[in-house]
Amino acid sequence: MIEKLKAIPLFSGLSEDHLEKIAFVATTLNFDKGGMIFHEGDKGNGFYMVEKGTVKVFKLSFEGKEQILHIYGPGHTFGEVPVFEGKNFPASAMAIEKSVILFLPREKFVSLITSTPGLGMNLLADLSRRLREFTIQIENLSLKEVPARLSAYILTLSKEQKNLKKVTLPISKAQLSNLIGTTPETVSRVLKKMTDSSLIEVQTKTIVIKDMEGLQDLSESGSL
Amino acid sequence: MIEKLKAIPLFSGLSEDHLEKIAFVATTLNFDKGGMIFHEGDKGNGFYMVEKGTVKVFKLSFEGKEQILHIYGPGHTFGEVPVFEGKNFPASAMAIEKSVILFLPREKFVSLITSTPGLGMNLLADLSRRLREFTIQIENLSLKEVPARLSAYILTLSKEQKNLKKVTLPISKAQLSNLIGTTPETVSRVLKKMTDSSLIEVQTKTIVIKDMEGLQDLSESGSL
DNA sequence: GGAATTCCTTGACATGGATCAAGTAATCAA
DNA sequence: TTGATTACTTGATCCATGTCAAGGAATTCC
Lengths: 224, 224
Prior knowledge:
- The structure is a homodimer of 224-residue chains.
- Chain A is of the alpha+beta class.
- Helices cover 45% and strands 23% of the residues of chain A.
- The interface between A and B is large, with 46 and 46 residues.
């Protein structure tokens, strides 16, 4: 367990001693594909870490439309907001494939923060990074059109995966459309246009970037 | 100065001694209406507090369109993200009226956090609250239409101002349209429709809520 | 207090993208 | 492997909201 915790950025710089305390209060949860980890409005009495698998954090509209806020893979933590703010979860979380999740109960963790200076700073950095990401997401949703959002997403993938020219979609196109705030139909049509303009080549879950600069332009301003 | 700091939620629960240390490193800045406090991309070597006036934090698109992320009045802090994350400002900040702003330099503040347990927790709570607000803003932009966003905004104002039935717009309608992600023309038209449906009455900067329940419905689901 | 500026409203029109529907491809399960 | 289920594509249509333009109200500034 301690080895697992060491790999998590949030806990970097902590002593074995502290990690041991954390390991002691953590529990392991298993979820099948589609399993709900928590629902918007639930009382949050702890937070979570992905050990294996993939998780989406999302909101549903009144009519059932979904907006994905984050997709998290191994090593990422989520569900912190109610831990520090006291209220309930502002969004829901679901495993989008068979996943193993660690759970850290709130109270034990809060007392750990005050006694572990580095942990507090790590958390502040982590929440700040998330605020920055939301800032970008709001910019994308409000100031950019779908082709710009989609190419920005492909470029993000290309940076995440070392594989600079050939990227693999980690989620279905339906999920992708909910992440960038559009519909599967529109994703399909825009990918086709991008292919027609020789920016990319698509084969099922693989996208080959043919014109990196063109994609970059499209992600910043342009339309197709 | 210490009296000013006491009024700020972020510093609640801190001893006079700690407040004195903070007051010692804080400086006062004056801005006219339209004065830029910082630009997106600037290196952030500290954060800010509104003492008097109003500030908007916003992003500009390539084409010059604006999306407002926050409007802050007296007592609110802003610009923390780079303090804890190290990089630059993810957005810009401008005084939208003559304002007095306190500036807290980064380095002195960071060392203060490690030596002041309560301050770290206050900051975590503050950033968490902001994450929750962004969550709602993303939901609004992506899952709701303009009439729902506008009525949600009016309801928020009504909660903020004790004045339950009669609210005063704290910003121009042009700014309001940039806050809810639309245009002045659309705001104008939607307010008119809401007036025609007897939900509200508008007179310049004042809105009287005639049908609270109807507004609530509209903010959650409906269209006009 | 009146001119000048800024802000707001209204109308006509254009359009990005949603929705509905039907077919095709990919994946899963037995 | 094959049938069944789920995911994706393509076309036709519709609608909310953006854009452009012009007139009207409110504020600001000498």
